[in-house]
Design brief:
The protein folds into four domains: about 150 residues, 3-Layer(aba) Sandwich (Alpha-D-Glucose-1,6-Bisphosphate, Chain A, domain 3), CATH 3.40.120.10; about 100 residues, Alpha-D-Glucose-1,6-Bisphosphate, subunit A, domain 3 (Alpha-D-Glucose-1,6-Bisphosphate, Chain A, domain 3, 3-Layer(aba) Sandwich), CATH 3.40.120; about 90 residues, Alpha-D-Glucose-1,6-Bisphosphate, Chain A, domain 3 (3-Layer(aba) Sandwich), CATH 3.40.120.10; about 80 residues, Alpha-D-phosphohexomutase, C-terminal domain (TATA-Binding Protein, 2-Layer Sandwich). About 35% of the residues lie in helices and about 20% in strands. The protein is built from 14 helices and 19 strands. The protein has a seven-stranded mixed beta sheet, with helices on both faces. It has a five-stranded mixed beta sheet with strand order 9-8-10-11-12, with helices on both faces. The chain has a three-stranded antiparallel beta sheet with strand order 17-19-18, covered by helices on one side. The radius of gyration is 22 Å and the shape is globular.
């Protein structure tokens, strides 16, 4: 059975359009609730969401689904994805749900599911949910006296803030640091500025006034232009850009330069190795991470493992082989000593901790290697399969030969939107631009012809 609902990061799509409809959300709640209702204890699920307008629709529908199969629901309100993962364990829930489309615009939404251990569900369980959704949903309904209850939980943000602060050594304070935080008008608009302020920083906030429509709009980790300008304007020590559900982070140094996830991984891996904290003497990243990172870590004698794109694959490899640092170039960094998923705030605190202890500016702390020229283009397509076109295959193979052993070529359909991502990197920037342009144009021509 092929996957129809779940992609690389849960279920995602345009709001009020299949599969992100109230009807489907309710069915997913019923199916997941049924699968995780084992034993005679009162079963509970925690539901968090980001700030997009359609969250009301999806949340209400999922509450109906879960309670109809006998699960009690704890509604957390707007809160980061890592907070949902943490609270699923802390509240001894059987299941956790985050309603978010991460870095996508407000028109989209999604459903991420976490098991009782705080980790995202396996492919097998997601397939079981899909089979259940396609079956007799009426058979899942609880008896009248077994219907679940729903209630909103207060103090969620305070619990997460304390959790994030405890990931630092007790001696670390941010007094004297001027920090600009871009909350992407998303799930961390309350918790991130508060946590930084409580640690002593002077906090300047950007994009922390959500209205249901402005999440990720020209802000956050995917659009850090305003943050870069504000850091320079305010002569701040650091800029921090989160995405809509705050599971990823991009750093801006005091000069306004961007520090991506690859540099962050290098910083944390080297720092943790020096402190004797780096497990298995290596790092897990994806095929999209820059070859410069791989070469740098290799020069330090550290292992470098690549996985397919998606934090779930990074986490799976980390758990399987005992690594505690992994992530993606996009800023989705997983530090499994602290979290079961990416956590933008906790990752930023690690960088801030090093800035404080080293007494060096961010530009020095976070400049570990020179990235190879890397270029990625997204090519939209509608229903066609251009990567199966013989003409496109020929162009790809020709350009792969042009790169030879001096570079890398990664071509893949996105797991969250109808685009094919074409990425190349090599020491020769002109070659990289030519290769990506050649392949992208071939895909465009093929897609236009169908």
């Amino acid at each position: 059975m092929s996957r129809k609902l779940f992609g690389t990061d849960g279920i995602r799509g345009q709001a009020n359009t299949h599969p992100m409809t109230a009807e489907m959300a309710m069915k997913v709640g019923m199916a997941a609730g049924h699968i995780f209702t084992k034993g005679t204890h009162r079963h509970r699920v925690v539901i968090g969401k980001d700030t997009r307008l359609s969250g009301y629709v999806i949340e209400s529908a999922m509450v109906a689904g879960f309670t109809s199969v006998g699960m009690d629901v704890f509604q957390l309100g707007p809160t980061p994805t890592p907070a949902v993962a943490m609270l699923t364990r802390s509240l001894r829930a059987d299941l956790g749900v985050m309603i978010s489309a991460s870095h996508n615009p407000y028109e989209d939404n999604g459903i991420k599911l976490f098991g009782p251990d705080g980790y995202k569900l396996s492919d097998d369980i997601e397939m079981e949910i899909e089979r259940c959704v396609g079956g007799d949903m009426g058979a899942l309904l609880a008896a009248p006296d077994k219907i679940g209850r729903a209630k909103r939980i207060d103090g969620v943000n305070d619990r997460y803030i304390e959790f994030a602060k405890r990931t630092l050594d007790k001696t670390i304070r941010l007094d004297g640091l001027r920090v600009v935080i871009d909350c992407a008008n998303g799930a961390a608009y309350r918790v991130a500025p508060e946590a930084l302020w409580e640690l002593g920083a002077e906090v300047i906030t950007l994009s922390n006034d959500p209205d249901g429509f402005n999440i990720n709009k020209d802000c956050g980790s995917t659009a850090p232009g305003a943050l870069r300008a504000k850091v320079k304007e305010m002569r701040a020590d650091i800029g921090i850009a989160l995405d809509g559900d705050a599971d990823r982070v991009i750093i801006v140094d005091e000069k306004g330069a961007i520090v991506d996830g690859d540099q962050i991984l290098a910083v944390i891996a080297e720092t943790w190795r020096s402190a004797g904290k780096l497990a298995n003497n290596g790092v897990v990243a994806t095929v999209m991470s820059n070859l410069g990172l791989e070469r740098y870590l290799g020069g330090l004698g550290l292992g470098f493992i690549r996985t397919p794109v998606g934090d779930r694959y990074v986490v799976e490899r980390m758990r399987r082989d005992g690594y505690n640092v992994g992530g993606e170039q996009s800023g989705h960094v997983v530090l499994s000593d602290h979290s079961t998923t990416g956590d933008g705030l906790v990752t930023a605190l690690q960088i801030l901790s090093l800035v404080v202890t080293s007494k060096k500016p961010v530009s020095e702390v976070c400049s570990r290697f020179m990235p190879l020229p890397q270029l990625m283009k997204n090519v939209r397509y509608n229903g066609s399969k251009p990567l199966e076109d013989d003409a496109v295959k020929a162009v790809i193979e020709r350009n792969r030969e042009r790169l030879g052993n001096s570079g890398r070529l990664v071509i893949r359909p996105s797991g969250t939107e109808a685009v094919i991502r074409v990425m190349a990197e090599a020491d020769d920037e002109t070659l990289v631009q030519s290769v990506v342009g050649d392949i992208a144009e071939a895909i465009r021509i093929s897609a236009a012809g169908h």
